[in-house]
């Protein structure tokens, strides 16, 4: 008894989706190094997640550590959405998915740099706004892609 396994054709451009997803790893690693650097400078010991109010009042390094930690945490909170929507969008529109994910990665760098000024209001800059728009675009396009796939299989 023999059986045949058919593999669906991989869309042209899917390698760019892989590259854009890999860019998020570099963002996370960079944020991790930044948090570690400021943790050491501020003297915040593990497992303490953030510097206490008194530590922040006594040290600008503790404030910057809190800002770096929050930027990294916010990226971790959003990364599952970016991963899922990039992959789903990439199945039908790989170039669009890769571009949007790449823009999101660049926006997270700008977000982190803005946060590291010590003024959290500076985290939301123009580049960050483009990243938010690209994430919304990924969400809408992934919903459309999945909906199209479900409708065509009925």
TrEMBL record:
<protein>
    <submittedName>
        <fullName>MAPEG family protein</fullName>
    </submittedName>
</protein>
<dbReference type="Pfam" id="PF01124">
    <property type="entry name" value="MAPEG"/>
</dbReference>
<feature type="transmembrane region" description="Helical">
    <location>
        <begin position="81"/>
        <end position="106"/>
    </location>
</feature>
<dbReference type="GO" id="GO:0005783">
    <property type="term" value="C:endoplasmic reticulum"/>
</dbReference>
<dbReference type="GO" id="GO:0005635">
    <property type="term" value="C:nuclear envelope"/>
</dbReference>
<feature type="transmembrane region" description="Helical">
    <location>
        <begin position="16"/>
        <end position="35"/>
    </location>
</feature>
<dbReference type="InterPro" id="IPR001129">
    <property type="entry name" value="Membr-assoc_MAPEG"/>
</dbReference>
<dbReference type="GO" id="GO:0004602">
    <property type="term" value="F:glutathione peroxidase activity"/>
</dbReference>
<keyword id="KW-1133">Transmembrane helix</keyword>
<dbReference type="InterPro" id="IPR050997">
    <property type="entry name" value="MAPEG"/>
</dbReference>
<dbReference type="GO" id="GO:0004364">
    <property type="term" value="F:glutathione transferase activity"/>
</dbReference>
<dbReference type="InterPro" id="IPR023352">
    <property type="entry name" value="MAPEG-like_dom_sf"/>
</dbReference>
<dbReference type="GO" id="GO:0016020">
    <property type="term" value="C:membrane"/>
</dbReference>
<keyword id="KW-0812">Transmembrane</keyword>
<keyword id="KW-0472">Membrane</keyword>
<feature type="transmembrane region" description="Helical">
    <location>
        <begin position="126"/>
        <end position="147"/>
    </location>
</feature>
């Amino acid at each position: 008894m023999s059986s045949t396994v058919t593999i669906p054709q991989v869309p042209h451009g899917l390698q760019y989706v892989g590259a854009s997803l890999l860019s998020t790893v570099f963002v996370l690693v960079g944020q991790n190094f930044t948090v570690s650097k400021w943790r050491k400078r501020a003297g915040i010991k593990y497992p303490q997640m953030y510097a206490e109010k008194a530590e922040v009042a006594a040290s600008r390094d503790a404030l910057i550590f809190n800002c770096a930690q929050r930027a990294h945490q916010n990226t971790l909170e959003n990364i599952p959405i970016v991963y899922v929507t990039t992959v789903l969008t990439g199945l039908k529109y790989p170039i669009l998915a890769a571009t949007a994910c790449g823009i999101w990665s660049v926006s997270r760098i700008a977000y982190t740099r803005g946060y590291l000024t010590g003024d959290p209001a500076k985290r939301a800059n123009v580049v960050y706004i483009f990243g938010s728009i690209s994430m919304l675009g990924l969400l809408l396009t992934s919903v459309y892609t999945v909906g199209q796939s479900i409708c065509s299989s009925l």
